[in-house]
Design goal:
10% of the residues lie in helices and 29% in strands. It is mainly beta and 79 residues long.
Length: 79
């Protein structure tokens, strides 16, 4: 999803409504938890074979590392 698409989707909601995000808690009951959004920032991600999804990179893991095969992308992160 792109920022422009998110903005378009949010236009139909009450501007004073709280925003939460959801994810699976990985417990026995398959609970979906929904914490409130705390922050929005620009970050860098790369695909992780181990996790089979993108992972957020720490500052020291950025594209200046020696591995030329890495594909690091700048994204907007909702936390």
């Amino acid at each position: 999803m792109k920022v422009s698409e998110l903005i378009e989707l949010l236009e139909g909601f009450d501007a004073e409504a709280e925003i939460h995000f959801t994810y699976g808690y990985n417990d026995y009951w398959r609970t979906q938890v929904a914490p409130a959004v705390r922050d929005v920032f620009e970050g860098e991600v790369e695909y992780s074979e181990y996790h089979r999804t993108d992972k957020l990179l720490e500052a020291y893991e950025g594209p200046e590392d020696d591995d030329d095969d890495r594909v690091v992308r700048k994204v907007v992160v909702i936390q």
